[in-house]
Amino acid sequence: MVESNATHPRIRSYVRREGRITPSQKQALEQHWSRYGIEPSDKPLDWLQAFGRNAPRILEIGFGNGESVITQALAHPE
């Protein structure tokens, strides 16, 4: 992380957005978590069990408005 000074402002690579869940997002989580959610655990994730197949994986952190996810999905529909 770059320190802030008079010439260069502090650079932030991400912003935490906790506490901003909409009623629709809350409803979707409640309705679909059992199918799409993965419960946190102290154990390493079993990728084969989680996704039902052994394949390369891409971890997207902070997907923003989804442009990167859509690009990857279109490039690798499998």
List the helices and strands and how they pair.
Elements (H helix, E strand, L loop, with lengths): L22 H14 L10 H5 L15 H9 L3
The secondary-structure class comes to mainly alpha
Mean pLDDT: 83
Sketch the major β-sheet: none
- Percent helix: 25-40%
Q: How many distinct beta strands?
A: 0
Shape: extended
Counted by DSSP, the helix tally is 3
Spatial extent as radius of gyration = 18 Å
Strand content: under 5%
The run of helices and strands is: HHH
**Oligomerization state:** single chain
Q: What is the straight-line distance between the termini?
A: 37 Å
Note poorly predicted spans. Answer: none
Would you write up a description of this structure?
The protein has helices at residues 23-36, 47-51, 67-75. The protein starts with 22 loop residues before the first helix and ends with a helix. The protein is extended and about 50 Å long. Helices cover 36% and strands 0% of the residues. 0% of the residues are buried. It contains 3 helices and no strands. It is mostly helical. The mean pLDDT is 83.
